[in-house]
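Thread title: Can someone regenerate the structure for this chain?

I was given the following input by a collaborator and told the matching structure tokens would be attached. They weren't. Posting the sequence so someone can regenerate them.
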Amino acid sequence: MKRLLLCTALMVPSTAAAHPHIFIETGLEAIVDAQGRLTHVRVTWKYDEFYSLLVTEDMQLDQDYDGVLTAAEEASLSGFDMNWDAGYYGDLVAILGDTDLALSRPQDFTAQMVNGQVITTHLRAVDGAPKVVGTELVLRPYDETFYSAYDVTLPVKVTGWDACLISKFEPDIDSELEAMQAQLAELDANSDPEDAGLPNIGEKFATDVRILCAGP
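Best answer:
Regenerated them for you:
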């Protein structure tokens, strides 16, 4: 509901306003090795029912409309959202302390359909496998254009290291929306928000997942 209200509000007052078309429930898993190094991040995306229907219709899957895929259909679906353009950041930013982490392209991806919703997972290796114990890790899923809206409603966990505190910090939707609308109101209908120097819209409405793991 929060995202739907946001979507509606961002459509006014300018046609230049961005608003989400795809709604994705998100889960995150930080994978830490025995030396306290962050080796991988696993991402789960659960697409909204309407987008799931569009995808399966386009790929001619679930032709009996029971919301369940056969093993062969799941194999066909797997990877449909993993054909990333070069330089695409995968709608996920990872920051360790004050350092931006480089993440690999998606690996070991899966796809299934549960109760009419497509759920995919993928694994991303962390360049250099930095030591994460004792330094705050921030995982921030978002789409810069806000075409897709990510809600961190699925499980967030750390695998491989027990002494970790996980916190979620939600954006202040009301204040961010008010500021965004004020800036949009100053544009005419033919203006491009990016050319006008407006801030990264998706990041403004992103949830921060913060993980702090203690040493042994």
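Confidence is low (pLDDT under 50) at residues 1-17.
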